[in-house]
Amino acid sequence: MEPAVPPQASLLLVDDHAGNLVTLQAILAPLGHELVTALSGEEALGHLLRKNFALILLDVQMAGMNGFELAAIIKRHVPIIFMTAVGKDAAHVFRGYSEGAVDYLVKPFDPDILRAKVSVFVDLHIKEQTIKAQEHILREHQREVLERENEVRYRRLLDAMPQCIWATDATGHVDYWNRAGLEYCGLRPEEVSEDSFWEQLHPEDRAAAREDWERDKRGHIPLERPIRIRNAATGEYRWHLARAVPERDEGGAITGWIATATDIDDQKRAEQTLEATIALRDDFLSVASHELRTPLTSLKLEAANLLRRARRGDLTDDRLVTRLERIDAQAARMHRLINELLDVSRIVAGRLELSLEEVDLVQVVGEVVLQFKEEAARVGCTLSIAMPSEAVGHWDRSRLEQVVTNLITNAIKYGGGKPIAIEVVEHGDRIRLVVCDHGVGIPPEDQDRIFDRFERAAPTRNYSGIGLGLWIVKQIIDALGGTVTVDSIPDRGSAFTVELPRWNGAALTRPPAADLDHPRFPELARGAARSP
Ligand code: ADP
Predict the structure, then answer these.
(1) What 3-state DSSP class applies to 245?
(2) What are the E-state strand segments in 107-154?
(3) How many A from CA of 438 to the centre of ligand 1?
(4) Which of 223, 351, 424, 507 could form a disulfide with 346 if both were Cys (CB 3.0 to 4.6 A apart)?
(5) pTM for the predicted model, two decimal places
(6) What is the pLDDT of residues 98-156, one digit of tens each?
(7) Which domains does the chain have, with CATH numbers?
(8) Best substitution site from 442, 445, 447 to test ligand 1's pocket, by max atoms within 8 Å of Cβ?
């Protein structure tokens, strides 16, 4: 065991007689403390400013500043033993105590008594210092424990937060990520580095985000910008709002940065969808108004023309019929367009109501073909039909008419004046309708999207339309539990195929079998169906 080193203290000896100081030093040296001497009050003050003393031995009678005056300046911060010559009166002694003396010694001293007294005060001082040091150590320890506890608590708090949080030092070097950040980026704590952060950003965002960060870091400005961060679990980049704020010490100097990234992907996507929807709506409005204006203009012209001729009285019956037919055709076109628009709002609002009944698809096709026979003939198309005598199912008649109408009018519109073949085939519980033309066809990459809203594949300047017909067809067929598909080769033609279950879904009850056999189809439809 190491020998215990006795604790050392410093004593200040003040006397204007050097000889007295030498005597004092000789008496006190055996105690082993540091002895500092001063020959005047002023010199003593200089030492007191620089050093912490356990005790002052102070001569009362000194030239210049005497002992009492020096004691008054020291103001009881250090214990003082006054030393005085023999024969001084009691008043003198009393003044010494009132100026802060802890003891009073009369010269010449008994060396043992002097050492004993000095030892008492020095021991006291050393104990006091030891207690202070221990208190300091205890306080430091408590502070460290508290700091550690706080750190653990804050880390737990940060780890419990759903946002990605990371911290950097003053230079911007990343030295901490919270659990959410590590998990989101698929990193282990030891992989955390500044580069590990930038690598998680979308390549398109990296340079700009880094530029902003460097600029704001230099300018000590908090940063706020959207960035895309890669999700390790899915591999997708999600939009986050990144914010970095400086951490400052008490003097205001920046000691680091704390950054958070809040997932705003859903919000961002909603905004993008909204923007796309608004753009689509604007496009649609201009196309729709143009499409409505075209038939309306011809309708107005025809009506004005008719009126002028009627007023002049030069209208023969023949001409009247032709002109009224044109007016009727334009009005029908407008009617169809407006119905399509109304259907969109109904379908989007989820109000496509089906009124199901027993319907013969053969009859429906026959009626529609009859209706469009002349229009087809005008553009040089022939309509041929191959159908069984009937194809009965449980469907919505007017919606089915709409489907057939849309497919046939498209075949006429995009059919390039070539023959159009319509076929109805029964196979078991399903009925198939095929409308096949030999016109412009549809490029393979467009064949899916033409069933979406407002999607068109043909050049708009050559073909009128608003891109809703096939979407409506698909909505109706979906609602009836069927499918609609297209096979097409550009410049060779298209075949649209609708497959419908005769009896759709659990909600619909199959009508009694007897009903199926009941002949109830007007001759007109059959006749038309056979020879369009
Ligand atoms: P619209 O005819 O008003 O544009 P549709 O929804 O009926 O709207 O059709 C969407 C697009 O599909 C059309 O613009 C056209 O490009 C293409 N299309 C539809 N039917 C045919 C067809 N029979 N032949 C070639 N292209 C077609």
Answers:
(1) strand
(2) none
(3) 14
(4) 351
(5) 0.53
(6) 776 778 888 888 999 999 999 998 998 889 888 999 999 999 999 999 999 998 998 89
(7) 10-133 (3.40.50.2300), 161-263 (3.30.450.20), 270-346 (1.10.287.130), 355-516 (3.30.565.10)
(8) 442
